[in-house]
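From the pipeline queue, job 12 of 40. The input is one protein chain; the requested action is below.

Action: predict structure.
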Amino acid sequence: MPERADPTVRQRRHIEALIAQNEALANRVRELETQPKPAVIMPRETPPSALVAPATVPTSPEPASEAALVPNAEGVLDLTAVRAGDEANPFAVRTLPPESVREIALRVGGIVRGPSPCALINGRPVQAGDRVESLDVVRIEPAAVLLRHGAELLRLPLTEKPVRIRLPL
């Protein structure tokens, strides 16, 4: 009972416990800093020559370095945004009026690899050379499907949520 009555004893024990916790955390941080960092293994791109289109579908080989548009953080690919010809502001972006825009939602639900790869887009099986909405299926990669709309190449990743694509009419 005398310990409860003396607040300095309780305070001293509390401070000692905090110091011990601080020392234990500092030791753990030192251990983590001295451990070697794990090597990060980046997935290798499958070369286009390894991706084989069906023999009956004539396709032109796409270079692996060709840049493709990918969905933004909200899962939107906007092909209606046009750069303005304003020399004063090179970052100015103009969009088409809403009445001249069509939006579609595409979801890559699965990809089957092999000599004739195919993918499920909105529950429909597709292969290179097929058309989905107004987009041409160019290539099926291990984790994405490449589609072409005019001169633009779009990369649709294998995701749970559909990608919204805004197209000009």
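Job complete. The radius of gyration is 28 Å.
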